[in-house]
Amino acid sequence: MTVHAAPIVLDFEDGIDRKTLRRLRDRFLLVNQQRWQRACSALTYRQQMVLELLPLVFHRNHPALPGYLDGNCPDGFSGYTPGQEVLDAARRYARSFHYRDKGTRKPDLDSLFLMGSPGTLGHSVASDLDVWLCHRQDLPASGIRCLERKAEKLSEWAGGLGVELHVFVFSAADWRAGRQRVEVTGENCGSAQHFLLLDEFYRTSIHLAGQYPLWWLIPVDREADYDHCRRQLVECRFIQARDYIDFGAVPDIPPAELPGAGIWQLYKGIDAPWKAILKLLLIECYATDRERPLLSASFKQAVHNGVISADALDPYVLLYQRLEQWLLARDGADRLELVRRSLYLKSGLPLSRAGMVGDPWRVELLRSLVEGWGWSSEDLGRLDDRQRWCAEEVMGLRRRVVAELTHSYRLLARLAREQDAQASISANDINLLGRKLYAAFQRKAGKVELINPGLVPSLAEENLSFHHRSEQGAAGDGWLLYRDLEDPSDAFWQPVIRRAGNLAELLVWCYCNGLLSRSTRLNVRAGQSVASVSELKEILDVLAGFLPVPMPPAPRQALSRAVRPLRNLLLLNVAVDPQAHLTERGLHKLSARNDSLGFSGARDNLVVTIDQITLNSWHEVSLQHYAAGDTLIQCLKNVLAQVAINPAELPDIRVMAPSRGHGQAIARRVSELFADVLRQFFAGGTGPHPLRYIIEMDQRYFLLQFNGQEPGFVALDSRAALMDALFQPQDSFLPVVPDRYALQDAPLLKAVCEASEAGNIQVFWQLQGDQGQLWVVDEYGSLWHRQLKAQQRRHLLAPLLRFLDSVIERRQLRQADNLEPVAGIRCYELVRRDGRWLADPRPELVAGMPLSGLEVQAVGVQQGDSILRFDLYCNDQEFTVQEYGDRLIPAVAHYIRSLRQSPDPYPVYLTDLHLPHDLDPQLYQRDIQTSQYLFYRAQLEDALNQHLS
User: What Pfam families is this protein classified in (predicted)?
Assistant: First the structure.
C-alpha cells in the first residue's frame, strides 16, 4: 500500500520556512533509508560489508581499512559522522581499527552516492554498484589521482567479495561544467549523455555520506528558475551551503544529447538487452513526448506531495508506468508487451516457481505488476523456463529484440542527422559504438548469426541429428538439423531446427550458439555423403581449440581500428571422400608421389572442398564454403586478400581434415602451402612483395601474383603454357618462386627460378651430349628458354652472349645521361650436386666468347598496318622490306648460302637487333625488355634456318 504524508508546498515568493525545508529533506532521507536497506538486502552477508564500509573508508584514510594507499590521500566528508553500526562493521573487518574525529580540519570530500539499480525492483546479487564520489572543487590534481587509485584498489577488494564496484571521482563544479573525464568503456557512457544521466541519478541515487542534493528542495514547477531559487536559499540563509551539493537542474533533456545516449544504450543492449530496451524506449519517449515531465521530476513531485513508500517510488515502477502511458497513447500494444517482458526478465524473479529465492518486497512488487498485466500462469511458466527454450523460440524472441533495437537505431540516426554538429556524442564514440552494433547484428554473407545475445541461459540440446537431404529422397547437397529423433523415419514429422548447404556450416552454427555441449548425443544420417559421428567429434574438438564460446565482446582497442582477420580454420573434405571414384571400386593407388595436391601417378588433387572459418578482430565469425572449381586456389586468394590489408599482423591459420583418406597428410600439405605463400608475399611484416608463385596441382600450374593490393591467379594447363606465361614482359622485376612440390619433373627450370635475382641478365645453360638448353632471366624476371643442338659449350653460348652484348651496348649508349647502372650479364651452369640441380656461377664466360662469322643484323620497321617487319643486314649487304617484301627471308637465306664454303647446313644467328619503341601502337616503350629482343631474335633465326636447311 502507498504510504502518504502531508504535501509540502514551498512558496519562494512569500517566504520559506527553514523547518519546512528540513522536513522536506528528512522526507527524502526517509525514502533514501528504505532504498539503502533494500540495497543491502539484495547482497549476501559478506557483500553487505562493502556498502557498510564505503562511507568510512573515504571519510577516514586508515591503514587498517580496505583501499588504503598512503597517509596523504584526501579524506573526510562534510558533516558526516559514522554511526555505531558502521564502526562495528569496521571493527569486524579490522580489530585494530579505532575511530578518532579529526576536529575542525577542512574536509576534502563533499558527498558519496550510490546510483542505478541498487534498492530497486531491477537489483539483484549480480548487479554492479555504481558510486559517485564527489570531492571539493579546489582539490589539487595530485589528490584527485590519489582518490582514483584508491577507488581502483577498493574495486579490487569488492571484487574479491563478489561485488562489481565502480567508483567515479569528480567534483560537482566539474559536473555542472561538463568537464568530467570519460570515454566509452565497459561502464562509462563516454561523451554520450549528461542530463539523461543526471535525470537517472536524481531518481535512483542513495545518499551514503556528506552533503545532500540541493535539487531536492527546488519545486518541480520552479525547475526552470533553478539558479534563482538556489541563490535565494543560500544567500538568504534558509540553508547552509556547506550542507548541500549542487549538480544543477534538469528542466529538460537537450535534443542534441538523445542520439548519443541512445547509441550508448544500444551498445549496452548487445550483451544485456532487457535493461537497454527499457532505457531506449525511455529515450524515444523523451524525444517524442516533450509535454510530460521527466521521471526525475515525477519522483520529486511525488515526494513533495507526500508519497514516501519505496514501492510507489521505485525507479523501475515509475519507468514502466511512464512507458505504459506513452505506448498506449500511441497504439503500441506490441511494444508494450516487449517492455513488460523486459522488465520481468530484468528483475530475474521467476514467480511461477515454488520456494523462489528473492527479497519478499521485490516478489510482491513484481507480482502486483504482473497481475495488472493479465498474464496467465502458463505465460509466467514459459518465461521462467527459458533455460528449456529451444533454438527456434529463441530466434523468434531475438527477432523481436533486434527489431526493437533496429527501430531505435534508425530513430537515433535520424535524430543525429537533425542535430548534426550539436549532438553531444563525439564522432569517435559514434564510430566505436556503431562498429560494435555492426559486428553484433549486421547480416552479411557467410557470417555466423548468434541467436542468443543474453536472452536465455543456455541452448544446449541433449540429442542432435544431422541428416543429409538424400536421406529423404531429395536431390543435391544440403543438411538438416533435428533434435531427439529416436527413429530416423520420425524426421518426416519433426520440425527442422535449421537447414544449411553443407555440414560444416550447420556444425559451426550449432557450436557458436551453444546447442552442442560435451554431453550432447550426436546422430548422423549421411545419405550419399561419407559423414560420421566420429568425424563430427573430430571437428568439434578442433573448434573448441579455435573459438572461445561464448564469444567475449571485442575490446575497445580492436573496435577503434579497422576490422582484420585474427585466425582462420580450414576444414578440408568435410563429409567428402577425396578418392571416392577409387574407393567405390576397391582400388588404392600406389606411387612414389605423395603430394596431396598431385597424388599418385594420376596427379590427383585430394583437396575437394574447403570450409574457411574466420574469426576477426571485431569477434565476428564467418564461414565460406569452397566446393566448385579450383577450391584451394580460391581459398588461398581470399586469405591473401585479407592479409594484404594489414600485413604487419598475419592471421593464424590452422588446417584440419578428417582422419580418413590421408586426412593428416592432406592437412599438413595445405598448412605448409599457406605458410610458404604467406612467408614469400609478406616477409618482414610488409607486402605484398612483387613475385610470381608457382603452384602445381592436379596436372596443372597456377601462377599467383598481386596486382597492387589485389591477389590473382592464372591457371595453365601445360608446361608450355607455363613457360609462355613466365616469358611475358613485366613492368618491374618479378622473381619466380616455385612451391616446394612444384616442378619436380622440371628440376632444371626450378633451379633457374630459385637462382634468379634482380638487376642483371642471367644466362643459364646445360649441355648433355649434343643437346643443349639455354635459359635467360632478364632484368625484369621474364624467363626465356631455348633448346638446340650443340657439340661444345662455345657453340651453345657464344651466339647468345654476342647478341646480349649488342643489346646492352645499345642500351648503355641510349641511357648515357642516366646515372642508374645498366643490367650486366651473369652466366651459370646447371649442375647436379648432392642429389639436386643447382645453378653454378661461371663468371669467366662473361668476359666474352669471340665467335668469328657473319654479322647478321635486323632493324624493326613499324608500318601503317601495325605489323612489325624487319630490314636485314648481312655484313654490308642490305635487304629491306621495301625492296623484297614477302620474299625478304628467302632472299637473305639465298645470300648466306652463297657465302658458305661447305654445302652442309648449319644454323645462322642474329648478332644484333633493333626494335622500335612503339611495338605496341598504343604505348611508347622507352626501355624494351631483353626478353622482347630474344623473342623476335628467335622468330627471325627460325625463319632463316628453315630456309637454310
Answer: Adenyl_cycl_N, Adenylate_cycl
pLDDT in tens, 10-54: 888 777 889 999 999 999 999 999 999 999 988 888 899 999 999
Q: How many CA atoms lie within 13 A of 437 on its CB side?
A: 22
User: Angle CA(449)–CA(455)–CA(457) in degrees, nearest 5?
Assistant: 105
592 and 658 belong to one structural domain: yes
Whole-angstrom Cα distance, residue 476 to residue 469?
Answer: 7
The range of the structural domain enclosing residue 637 comes to 567-739
As for how many domains the chain has, the answer is 6
Chain-centre distance for alpha carbon 5: 57
Q: Which residues contact 586 (CB under 8 A, 6 or more apart)?
A: none
CA pair distance 195, 253, nearest whole angstrom = 6
Q: Are 620 and 439 in contact (CB under 8 A)?
A: yes
For residues 476 and 470, give the distance between their C-alpha atoms in angstroms, rounded to a whole number. Answer: 7
Distance CA 866, CA 369 (A): 90
Burial of 440 (C-beta count, 10 Å sphere; 0-12/13-18/19+) = buried
CA pair distance 180, 853, nearest whole angstrom = 92
pLDDT in tens, 824-873: 899 999 999 988 999 999 887 766 565 567 889 999 887 665 688 899 99
| Structure-model confidence comparison of residues 161 and 126, the more confident one | 161
Domain identity same for 171 and 318: no
Q: Is residue 555 part of a domain?
A: no
pLDDT tens, residue by residue, 466-485: 999 888 777 778 899 998 77
- 637 vs 262, higher pLDDT: 637
Query: What are the contacts of 924-931 at 24+ separation with CB within 8 A?
Result: 927/811, 929/729, 929/730, 929/778, 929/779, 929/780, 929/782, 930/761, 930/776, 930/778, 930/779, 930/782, 930/804, 930/807, 930/823, 931/727, 931/729, 931/776, 931/778, 931/780, 931/782, 931/783, 931/784
Q: Taking residues 59-73, report their average pLDDT.
A: 91
Burial of 749 (0-12, 13-18, 19+ CB in 10 A): buried
In a domain, 691, yes or no: yes
Extended strands (E) in 191-241: 206-210, 212-213
| CA 511 vs CA 383, 397, 451, 520, 579: distances in Å | 24, 20, 12, 11, 29
pTM: 0.80
Question: What is the arrangement of strands in the sheet containing 856-862, beginning at the earlier edge strand?
Answer: 877-879, 868-874, 856-862, 912-914
**Cβ 569 vs Cβ 624: under 8 Å:** no
* Burial of residue 60 (number of CB atoms within 10 Å: 0-12, 13-18, 19+): buried
**Could you say which of 830, 849, 868 is where a domain stops?**
849
Pairing of strands 565-572, 652-656: parallel
Q: What is the pLDDT of residues 273-311, one digit of tens each?
A: 888 899 999 999 999 998 899 999 999 999 999 999 999
- Cell readout for 589 is 593407388
Compute the distance between CA of residue 846 and CA of residue 594 in angstroms, rounded to an integer.
41
**Could you give the CA distance from residue 155 to residue 918 in angstroms, rounded to a whole number?**
76
- Given a contact cutoff of 8 angstroms between Cβ atoms, the answer to whether 196 and 279 are in contact is no
Three-class DSSP category at 320 = helix
